[in-house]
Amino acid sequence: MTPATTFSGRTVALFGLGGSGLATAKALVAGGAIVAAWDDAQAKRDEAAAAGVPVVDLASADWSAYAALVLSPGVPLTHPAPHWTVERAKAAGIEIIGDIELFCRERRRSAPDAPFISITGTNGKSTTTALLAHILREAGIEVAMGGNIGTPILDLPPPSDERVHVVEVSSFQIDLTPSIDPTIGCLINITPDHLDRHGTLEDYAAIKERLVAGARTALVGVDDDPTNAIGKRLSQREGADVYPVSAQGERPWGFFALGREIRARNAGETLEEALVLADIEGVESLRGRHNAQNAAFACAAAWLAGVPPEAIRAGVRTFPGLAHRMEQAGTRGRVRFVNDSKATNAKSTEVALAAFERVHWILGGKPKAGGISALAPHFGKIAKAYLIGAATEAFAATLEGHVPFERCGTLDVAVARAAADAAATGEDEVVLFSPACASYDQFRNFEERGERFKALVAALP
Fold first, then answer.
1. Which residue of 132, 155, 172, 337 has the lowest C-beta tally within 10 Å?
2. What is the pTM of this model?
């Protein structure tokens, strides 16, 4: 745990007692703060009380006594409307922050030079975070990995000059972290997502920009228009330390993927002089064009953190990958099953489809803005689509006349039908579960959805 001592002796309101919220409440208590915590769910309030966290009904509380509102990232700050606790905090004139902000303040107070690498982006941030942490560990460096990937940041050990914090940060978390200041900040890409929570793409991009704008050294993608604009803007600041990162081939300087090689190049160097940091050819956990981008960022951050190229190459070769992200879920005969449950939007699914020549595609769930029309260039490689969940009719309308499809309703039916059709060809086939949708219509989250897919594959005869 990292005790949050910056509110020692002061009273703090906290709303949201899920995983990160409860960890934050405990860290505040451990740091000497007087906490008034609340959650709409009785079970969460009971869990907090059992852990020694004071539970107070914030709806009837006197907000003039609070120094700050610490908000869980899942609670709306601005859109579609501010949560009622946000309105109460604004009326009381107190700041509204999150757990990442508490960590940043603790780091500045206790260990301002402690290595802190932070990663954000619409897609790929979890794989990049995990790959970077793996490379650092394999190089013999102590790593604390968490944030939006697994362990809440305040459940990690405290910042230290002897330890590197590798932290994935979502747009919701950045919005609650006004002073985010990583040693190395990574902004991988920006595509439309979470607009229901941020209003517009411009607002969403501006929030993402804060992470690299506050970083001592920034790694910024150049493969999409929003990040490219951010990189150019930051590079114009006096004293800027900003490096471009691309997965689309040779760049005159910076970090880039040339085929499956990840290279670092100084301005003025020839291509032959550019340093090869890693080669991801044959690394199954980094299959696909999108993973070349993820690997480029992870290798660049490791290099800037002082890891020698030979150690970076060794770490990349042994990376096991992440669950639910192009995960090999098993084979039955000549049919391979791939679990890409983390693909919750069309952009994520696009890179999965691009990684294969022919697939039996299981998709659907709670649809996002834009649907799957952007995936039309890949329709020719889809042997058949198997539709599930709330998106069924909208996706059927898009696929009609272009791709054979079947309305399956639920995942168990889709897996059985796709497995049977793929096996019937007698050829090497791939069944790809890449939903292009949120999971909330039938599952609690993408993890539960992916585990269900793997269990269904394991149960196939």
1. 155
2. 0.84
